[in-house]
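Hi R.,

Here's the chain you asked about this morning:
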Amino acid sequence: MLHSLYIKNYALIEEISVEFSSGLTIITGETGAGKSILVDALSLLLGERASTEMIRTGADKAVVEGVFTVSSIKEILEILRTNEIDASDELIVRREVSNKGTSRCFINDTPVNVAALKEIGDVLVDLHGQHEHQSLLRSETHIDFLDAFGGYEKELAHYKLMYRTLTEAAGKMKSLQEQEHQLKAKKSLYEFQIKEIDAVDPKENEEENLEAELKILENSEKLSELTIGIYSLLYESETSVRDALAKARKMMEQLAEIDSQFSNSVGETKSAEIIVDELSKFVQNYSSRIEFNAERLEEIRERLGSLTLLKKKYGGTIESLLEFRKKIGEEFSLAENFESEIAKLAKEISAQRVSCGEQAELLAQKRKDAAKKLEKAILASIADLGIAKAKFETLMTRQTGNPDSASVIINGKYFESSSKGVDNVEFLMSTNIGEEVKPLAKVASGGEVSRIMLALKSALAKSDKTPLLIFDEIDTGVSGRIGQAVGVSLKNLSKHHQVIAITHLPQIAALADSHFAIAKFENNKRTSTQLTKLENEERVREVAKLLSGEIITEAGLKSARELMEKNSN
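And the predicted structure, written out as tokens:
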């Protein structure tokens, strides 16, 4: 939900800071007071296009900031992870527009692009106004409304997984077909390169091992000289370390017989003798194995030279050379067996088209069942909202496809498909007796579309996970009993969502859990818009103003109290 909103230097708004609560929040005000400005500022926060014209005259920049509570919204956590933003229970979204034409976006003080802001906004807020709700007029969105209502998330998720597998296989097939000519042209080159590399047959870590062996062979004379010298020093010479330690041990033994403090030193001297013995044996054995092998030395040098030439030609290291050999080997094998690879993949794709088609058909049946229930729910709601003689139908169609696309197969026939299935869904309606149903865009006025959207949102209330719904003058063109029905629908929606509604009807305002009034005032020859939270008697006066106009009478106040009391029951 939206916890707080801060707006500075946006159009007529100099500075506004307001906190919101759950339930139904109502905003009222005279025409031109700035209600639409408030909605525009929220739209900016949700990723809509920015313009320098919105910056208040004389200001350097406009700022809009919203603080949302998002503790359990998985989609938000995924967006934050993708953008490398730390997650918490609160989400701070800020948008700044400078008079130089630049726009900056921040999520939890981390700079992001507008696309990320819009992605966040799409999850957090559903804004319905005289223009913003036009998504309902776009037929491509209708399938999403139906699926949200249907409650067959598992079937849809399973289909999407199958479709992704199919499209990946189809993409691989297309890539193979595009490679065919190129692979055949390179086949001879690959064959030559493979023979050249395999003739040397480089091995992993071979170069390091050869260089270590080469170093030993090149220094065999020095190794012999040093090991013989060490053996003589430690063991063989008349003044060897071994003899000196033996004499020292005997002297220690004599000392220990006189003073026990030397007892430990006797053992340590023996240990030193053992270490010298082992070291002497090691260097003696090593020295006996040293030989100068000119043939092996030349062999290693030639081998290293061959490896160096290959590295220069095909890769900077043995690892990259081996990786290159693996790659061209696979491509050569593919070129050799291209037809069989294509046939094998085509068989897999055909099977996937059939299984994906079966799931798409199951999904289509689920949609047909859901459509019948949705039609009944919409007709019941819009009748209460003043469109009594309406007809509402869901048209489901599908298009034939072909083997060259990512089509699926149903009953032996190809049908165009997408990640949503094979169905094209469109809502049709008639608002007048005797008229045939037509697409919503052709039959519904702005006020009617707003009420249809309200009816749809009411039907989706429990399944729709959008935390905040904003309705901008959804009551346009209605009054009296119908206005009351619109208000009740908004109130019921607020049990499942945070709802903010801008209205001019007292019947709706009387239902508010919290109520704000927006008004213009002049200060130092400047016009500003201010948003004020109304409490108790202030609320009564505002509802009375909506009932009777600027001049508030006792009768108007009484009517307002009665209306509010009635709606609180």
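The chain has three domains: 1-129+473-534, 136-174+351-459, 206-314.

Let me know if you need anything else.
M.
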